[in-house]
Amino acid sequence: MENLGPHVLFMIGPLPVTTTVVATWLVMGFLVLVSILLTRKLQFLPGRLQNLLELFVEGIMNMIDDMAPSRGRIFLPLIGTLALFIGAANLTGLVPGLEAPTSDFNTALALALIVFAAVPYYGVKIQGWKNYLKTYILPSPVMAPFHIISEITRTFSLALRLFGNILGEEIVIAILFILAPIFVPVPMMLFAIFTGVIQAYIFTILTIVYLSAAVEKEGET
After folding, report:
1. Disulfide: which of 11, 55, 176, 190 matches 184 by Cβ 3.0-4.6 Å?
2. Which parts pass through the membrane (predicted)?
């Protein structure tokens, strides 16, 4: 239990390198390697792995198009990357000696801040400055501060939800492993896989909702 949470492994000058940093780079390296291996020889008639890759891409695009019609290709790079990274990061805790980077609030907050920055980026890109800023004063200019506060609080909510659930899952597994080390690991590992995938899905869905609201033009519903 005392080992839960990030701790410093070594220093690079004044910068501490924590277990979270190491796990994050391992996840990124793993995803880059898998991406290269899966995409280097794409065939017109896909094999099993290419089929799996295409199913994932189509699934993400369909999910985006369902909530933000015709925005699938625009949001795919961001949404797909977030879904892959968070899903892989959540499952990292299952690897002996590693901790899920998303069980560190700094990682969860960084991911939420990416979404926070992406909302005005896509809003301005698709609607233009004038129309995007206009959404802050609708239905009345009095609402502008509330819109801004809402965007800030939902960013922290996004980070806390991901961090809390993944950290809580790791704590429960650690406690049960101490109480029943022989019988608990397999069912709890399955539970951890389920929780990790669900949390990645929730984060992805909420991101699409925030982005679709930002690019929705007046009169479009």
Report:
1. 176
2. 20-39, 74-95, 107-124, 162-184, 190-211
